[in-house]
# Entry
Amino acid sequence: MEDKLKMALLDMNEGKPNQGMRGIRDIAAMYRNIFDIDEFDVRSKNEIPGTNYDVYISSGGPGNPMEGDGKWDKAWYGLVGDLWSYNLQHTYDKKYMFFICHSFQMACNYFELGTLAPRKSTSFGIMPVHLTRFGENDEIFGYLNDPLYAVDSRDYQLIQPDLEVFRMNGSKILALEKIRNHVEYERAIMAVRFSDEFVGTQFHPEADPLGMKIHFQKADIRDNVIKNFGQKKYDTMMEQIDDPDKIELTHDTILPKFIENAVNKIHANKTVLV
# Structure
């Protein structure tokens, strides 16, 4: 029997309750016949995986993505750098990593892809996300509608991309935030293909409709959303959760395609190496 591949799930939530890791675990569990799966509490316990995993998924989390305690953040950046260097040094044997929200922001900061800045106000809800021409032709995002719809929850954003750095790294902007004709703010970058092996989203592709619905129907969560964002925002979000062409399609496409593509490439490359 062929040995299983290895997947590392990096929990960046600092021990705070969240829906993100549940969603990531559920998607990863769909592939437990292919992967041995380990989870690492990066920020609360300073746990960090080594470079001996095949696929890495790093979650969202709270706080300023440009700040850390000098320990967990240094270790996380070290891992990203080590995996990037590993891929540069190996033609066939590659490591695959997906960055979500807070991790995406940190990765963009690490690779100096543009300006990472606080938003004027929190972006929260189910938002349209527009594909670029690179996104339309991407091996993952090409399966989605334009616009795709995604759960957005952020206080920071990547703007003013350094296109020279993108070019040097071979990185591509895959998606931008919704078009806002009534304001003059720059549109934030919502998804990036850092390389053939590294991909990230500013939004939460792991968010599933059923889990979201149960979560936001809880009285304390519902009341907090209405207090901070208004009844209309809450009602619209709950309606959109039920639409199969919105977050359900995003949930069923992005992380599963990322994992399946990684598996296919790993097996193809093993064939080459034999």
Observations:
- The longest strand covers residues 115-131.
- The CA atoms of residues 68 and 74 lie 8 Å apart.
